[in-house]
Amino acid sequence: MTLTPAQPAAVVAVAPRINVTAPPGSGKTRVITNRAIHLLNIEVPPERILCVTFTRAAATEMHERLAATLDPHDLDRLHISTFHSWACDMLRRFPGTIDRTQHFGIYDEQDMDDVRADLMLERRCKLKTWAGNTAPGKPDREWLLAMEEARLREWDAIDYDRMLIGARVTL
Predict the structure, then answer these.
(1) Residue 157, burial from CB neighbour count under 10 angstroms (0-12, 13-18, 19+)
(2) What is the Cα gyration radius of the chain?
(3) Confidence band, pLDDT 50/70/90 cuts, at residue 138
(4) What are 35-72's pLDDT values in tens digits?
(5) 2 or 13, which is more confident
(6) Cα–Cα distance for residue pair 71/48, rounded to 1 Å
(7) Cβ-proximal residues to 119 (8 Å cutoff; 6+ apart), any chain
(8) Distance from C-alpha of 90 to C-alpha of 57, rounded to nearest angstrom
(9) What pLDDT score does 21 carry?
(10) Torsion sign across C-alpha atoms 165, 82, 154, 103
(11) Which of 7, 106, 122, 148 has its CA 20 to 30 A from that of 18?
(12) pLDDT digit string (tens) for 80-120?
């Protein structure tokens, strides 16, 4: 796995964590893979190494590259995944962080659109009942976010954005 002249600095950086940001096809997966190998070579325990990326394809590629180099026992103890998969694993292990059970559901964007539509319909009905107002104004963002969170908590669910934020809080 050949690295560009700038990439070895990221591979051997002393920092406890690195963020590799670069355009598609520039070698991010190669850098993360080489860094995992480097960390194992300096005797960092495999279970202390987290290799995350945005796509399943990149996570699979990372796993395959590491499988070609590492002892299977070390490979099994590494955590290689997408950000969302890692976040889901963290929150299932520590569900109290997000006030859910470990069996929470995960809502995609379409599900969240449905939740918002239901909340808006309920709000319109309440406003009609309370004030006779048939054309309520657009709700403010804080109200909508608070109501979404309350509804998701009630239904033991979380959306993808909240999942990433919740996993970050567990660190």
Answers:
(1) middle
(2) 22
(3) low
(4) 999 999 999 999 999 999 999 999 999 999 999 999 99
(5) 13
(6) 16
(7) 144, 147, 148, 151
(8) 21
(9) 85
(10) negative
(11) 106
(12) 999 999 999 999 999 999 999 999 999 999 999 999 889 88
User: Does residue 127 have a pLDDT over 60?
Assistant: no
Question: What are the structure tokens assigned to 45, written together?
Answer: 């325990």
**pLDDT reading at 132 higher than 60:** no
Report the sign of the C-alpha dihedral through residues 62, 67, 72, 73, in that order: negative
The structure tokens listed for 171 are 């660190």
Amino acid type, 160: Y
